[in-house]
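Quiz preparation item.
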């Protein structure tokens, strides 16, 4: 099972392969900002992700650009976790 490492919280969680990153973080009790509830439009759920993740789809890339996200930020609601990753945000 893949692991999500959250260094800011000194926490590592194991998730089922293919789990949604935002939902996994929420289920672990971590706050994740959102106003679109995972529809991929608000960009509030952005996190810095290190590790292997699929490249953003066009609509995610457009949302990241439109909302002036950093190059290493991704929308956590749009990521499926298939291998170990590290995640950080500005507000944890
Ligand atoms: S929750 Fe809105 S873009 Fe992810």
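Solution:
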């Amino acid at each position: 099972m893949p692991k999500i490492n959250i260094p800011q919280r000194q926490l590592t969680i194991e998730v089922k392969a293919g789990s949604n990153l935002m939902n996994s973080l929420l289920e672990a009790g971590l706050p994740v900002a959102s106003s679109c509830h995972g529809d991929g439009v608000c960009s509030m759920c952005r996190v810095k992700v290190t590790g292997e993740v699929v490249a953003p789809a066009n609509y995610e890339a457009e949302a990241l650009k439109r909302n002036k996200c950093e190059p290493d930020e991704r929308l956590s609601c749009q990521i499926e976790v298939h291998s170990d990753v590290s995640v950080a945000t500005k507000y944890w």
